[in-house]
């Protein structure tokens, strides 16, 4: 006996036979073929067999069916049993050698057709084993077919209702093989029109050869690419395409998932234009603020030129330099590509140039500016500029009254979120600083107010040589 067949284990067989001698012969044959013992159930009619199957159908491995029974003739009984118990294999045993009946029985789902008196125990048992194995294989195939069908349904569901266009096309000729509803909606073509097109027909300025070259270069990597497509009405569409290349039914195909980036790109362009408009407006605001402040500074300069009192002239010059320090911040922002911050080095150089010019200082008082490439946000630059202006003005007016030469310096550095600024000179210092501090001069008041505004730590060293201001704050 074939080893493949022996692997099948038979537990219980239902014999539907009204002839007691034939039933007994089946029992003898089966015990002879399988000494371990196959349990049998007997039913003399189809009706009785259906009752047995109703109560014990899950226990039956195979049915041996006679076609000539008291309550059925021919294939009627077979069809009745098969209809209610399609998973149980049926071996037909008949005393009639009718090839047309045998063929019809096998085509209707019978596993074998045996002629009574023309088989022995081994042939009967082998027929039963094969019937069980074939039915088992058939059940597995049906289950696999069901799973494949269910998977295909799920795929079609995902494919058809995907929010993005999806196109399946032939890799070689680029003819469209399948597409979803969203593809029709986005491009404006109906399904039949697209199925008679090439995928490359949707592109503007990209050839089929370039597409295949791209896919060959990135085969298996599924890297998104962006192309301009054309709708049926001729409207340009910016599409991001992710392509999956694989074999389907012996053909090389590509599944292209497309994302319509047209509105996103339009929104991006609109936002960029809006940002540019706002930057232009902000530049114009800085320009006008700078102009207004410079007009104020010019008026103060004019007033100082006509003032008869030296003290009034000095106060007007001080105020003029303070206003100029503010206008200079707006001027730097107006000329900067970055409207949020200014370069500290350029700002300080121009601020000191103005002070040296206002107070008529020559090369006898040198300047050292060591601030590297540091930048300051506008909300920090204004108070820092005014503080430097006050300190520099103080040095010009008082530090070098007893000597003709000297040096004014500004140093700045930043790191770990801390900005450190040091401004000072090598003049005579402020020997009577405690009395000056008690009086709280306008310049010193401004420096303290501005340092509080920055939440900065302020340290003033007035011992000769020189005066040094150290300012430190978080940024």
From TrEMBL:
<keyword id="KW-0418">Kinase</keyword>
<dbReference type="Pfam" id="PF00072">
    <property type="entry name" value="Response_reg"/>
</dbReference>
<dbReference type="InterPro" id="IPR011006">
    <property type="entry name" value="CheY-like_superfamily"/>
</dbReference>
<keyword id="KW-0597">Phosphoprotein</keyword>
<feature type="modified residue" description="4-aspartylphosphate">
    <location>
        <position position="66"/>
    </location>
</feature>
<dbReference type="InterPro" id="IPR000014">
    <property type="entry name" value="PAS"/>
</dbReference>
<dbReference type="InterPro" id="IPR011495">
    <property type="entry name" value="Sig_transdc_His_kin_sub2_dim/P"/>
</dbReference>
<dbReference type="Pfam" id="PF07568">
    <property type="entry name" value="HisKA_2"/>
</dbReference>
<dbReference type="GO" id="GO:0004673">
    <property type="term" value="F:protein histidine kinase activity"/>
</dbReference>
<feature type="domain" description="PAS">
    <location>
        <begin position="151"/>
        <end position="195"/>
    </location>
</feature>
<protein>
    <recommendedName>
        <fullName>histidine kinase</fullName>
        <ecNumber>2.7.13.3</ecNumber>
    </recommendedName>
</protein>
<dbReference type="InterPro" id="IPR003594">
    <property type="entry name" value="HATPase_dom"/>
</dbReference>
<dbReference type="InterPro" id="IPR036890">
    <property type="entry name" value="HATPase_C_sf"/>
</dbReference>
<dbReference type="InterPro" id="IPR035965">
    <property type="entry name" value="PAS-like_dom_sf"/>
</dbReference>
<keyword id="KW-0067">ATP-binding</keyword>
<keyword id="KW-0547">Nucleotide-binding</keyword>
<feature type="domain" description="Response regulatory">
    <location>
        <begin position="12"/>
        <end position="131"/>
    </location>
</feature>
<dbReference type="GO" id="GO:0000160">
    <property type="term" value="P:phosphorelay signal transduction system"/>
</dbReference>
<dbReference type="Pfam" id="PF13426">
    <property type="entry name" value="PAS_9"/>
</dbReference>
<dbReference type="Pfam" id="PF02518">
    <property type="entry name" value="HATPase_c"/>
</dbReference>
<keyword id="KW-0808">Transferase</keyword>
<dbReference type="GO" id="GO:0005524">
    <property type="term" value="F:ATP binding"/>
</dbReference>
<dbReference type="InterPro" id="IPR001789">
    <property type="entry name" value="Sig_transdc_resp-reg_receiver"/>
</dbReference>
